[in-house]
């Protein structure tokens, strides 16, 4: 990557991380009724802070630099509007003292996640709001994650913000432990979706976004500190994140090309993360409730335990996908179940699963669906059908490395 490319990537990663902290801290100061003004302040501050960075070079401590400059820019805006906000204009946003924001969870982003998951807001809108406001997802990224149009998502976000603005008082600014525990299932969903995008983005130049994956893991760790892992499925979710992160170094070649699971060098898998994941999965067995995270972590553990692709226990993986589909059916689950059936030679059952998937919203826009169709066609000796399916996959919106991989399979390079 060029120097300019390195700077751009560092800017993108740092802004995503600091934007969530900045917005969360401002909301803790002014309350959720000011959430739209807070987003404006944060955006203006970030733009101002980054205006000269590419030209003057990346500071030795980029996060501290951005926090200081963005804090000063935000403080200027606050001072100009101090009468409107009704706060002391001597508030020093740039200070590193932790008691400036006094978050109830010692983490302003977790506080804001709890606020975004207010039961007054529609459950799905809670996810949209948290991903957009706290996790730093763009509208385009959030819409792509849910196979929605950006206009539809804008409308849902506006509705969620109106509900959030109706909350007021100290309890709205600093959620109680009771609210935290009541909203834990949604908080786990936010972390799960955040990690899913980081692990396999549906747009952009990167095969995965390690910074997003690490932030999801950090938020999960923060919830453990606040709840002692008592939420049903939390240990299983954490195990899933660790299992998936353990494979990141092996998923891409030195020149940025996608390496599929079948061809990955398993010696590159992070054994420390796999060990920790196994411990969390063991702890998850004490849960009284079986969640999707238990089943997904179980699938990930099967891959982690297999010494080679040929030794993978596809029968067990297929059974887990079947259970997962019965509990929480989805497009991705059906497609993955179909692939596991193919790898056992159960082609008719795989086709049935894919036919069911085809009727779900977003199937035609989901490249993995078409790639599964291509694999099924290949196994049946239908080369023309396989090519057609791959051509449909390349037409879907996906990341550049995935698109390049499909092009390679089609033999269209150069």
Structure description:
By secondary structure, the protein is mostly helical. Among the domains are: 3-86, no CATH class; 325-414. It has 22 helices and no strands.
H/E order of the elements? HHHHHHHHHHHHHHHHHHHHHH
Structural class: mainly alpha
Radius of gyration: 23 Å
Which strand-content bin applies to the residues? under 5%
The number of helices is 22
Mean pLDDT: 84
Tell the overall outline: globular
Largest sheet, in brief, is:
none
Tell me the number of strands. Answer: 0
- What is the helix content? 55-70%
Instruction: Show unreliable segments.
Output: 93-103
Please give the alpha-carbon distance between the first and last residues. 21 Å
List the topology elements:
Elements lengths: L2 H28 L4 H16 L2 H4 L5 H19 L1 H4 L22 H9 L6 H11 L5 H7 L4 H16 L4 H4 L3 H6 L1 H16 L10 H18 L6 H13 L24 H14 L7 H14 L8 H14 L3 H12 L4 H12 L8 H13 L3 H12 L5 H11 L4
Helix pairs in contact: 1-2, 1-4, 1-6, 2-4, 7-9, 7-12, 8-9, 12-13, 12-14, 13-14, 14-15, 14-16, 15-16, 16-17, 17-18, 18-19, 18-20, 19-20, 20-21, 21-22
Sum this structure up briefly.
This protein has 414 residues and is mainly alpha-helical. Helix content is 66%, strand content 0%. The protein has helices at 3-30, 35-50, 53-56, 62-80, 82-85, 108-116, 123-133, 139-145, 150-165, 170-173, 177-182, 184-199, 210-227, 234-246, 271-284, 292-305, 314-327, 331-342, 347-358, 367-379, 383-394, 400-410.
């Amino acid at each position: 990557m060029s120097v300019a490319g390195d700077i751009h990537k560092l800017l993108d990663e740092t802004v995503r991380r600091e934007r969530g902290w900045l917005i969360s801290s401002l909301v803790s100061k002014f309350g959720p009724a000011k959430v739209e003004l807070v987003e404006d302040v944060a955006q203006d501050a970030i733009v101002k802070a980054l205006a000269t960075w590419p030209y003057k070079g990346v500071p030795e401590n980029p996060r501290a630099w951005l926090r200081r400059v963005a804090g000063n820019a935000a403080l200027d805006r606050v001072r100009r509007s101090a009468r409107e906000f009704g706060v002391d204009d001597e508030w020093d946003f740039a200070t590193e003292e932790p008691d400036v924001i006094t978050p109830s969870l010692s983490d302003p982003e977790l506080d804001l996640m709890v606020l975004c998951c207010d039961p007054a807001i529609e459950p799905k809108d809670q996810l949209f709001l948290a991903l957009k406001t706290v996790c730093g997802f763009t509208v385009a990224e959030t819409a792509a994650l849910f196979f929605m149009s950006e206009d539809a998502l804008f409308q849902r976000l506006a509705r969620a913000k109106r509900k959030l603005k109706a909350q007021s008082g100290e309890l709205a600014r600093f959620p109680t432990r009771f609210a935290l525990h009541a909203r834990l299932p949604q908080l786990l969903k936010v972390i799960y979706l955040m990690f899913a995008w980081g692990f396999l983005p549906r747009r952009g130049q990167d095969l995965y976004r390690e910074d997003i994956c690490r932030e999801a893991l950090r938020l999960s760790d923060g919830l453990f500190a606040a709840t002692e892992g008592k939420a049903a499925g939390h240990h299983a979710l954490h195990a899933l994140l660790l299992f998936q992160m353990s494979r990141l170094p092996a998923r891409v070649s030195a020149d940025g090309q996608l390496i599929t699971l079948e061809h990955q060098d398993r010696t590159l898998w992070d054994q420390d993360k796999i060990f920790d994941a196994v411990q969390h999965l063991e702890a998850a067995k004490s849960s009284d409730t079986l969640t999707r995270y238990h089943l997904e972590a179980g699938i990930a553990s099967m891959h982690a335990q297999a010494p080679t692709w040929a030794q993978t226990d596809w029968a067990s993986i297929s059974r887990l996908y079947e259970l997962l589909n019965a509990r929480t059916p989805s497009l991705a689950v059906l497609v993955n179940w179909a692939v596991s059936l193919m790898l056992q030679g159960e082609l008719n059952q795989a086709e049935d699963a894919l036919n069911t998937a085809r009727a779900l919203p977003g199937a035609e826009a989901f490249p993995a669906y078409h790639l599964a169709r291509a694999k099924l066609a290949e196994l049946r000796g239908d080369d023309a059908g396989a090519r057609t399916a791959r051509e449909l996959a390349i037409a879907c919106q996906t990341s550049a490395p995935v698109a390049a991989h499909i092009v390679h399979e089609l033999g269209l390079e150069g």
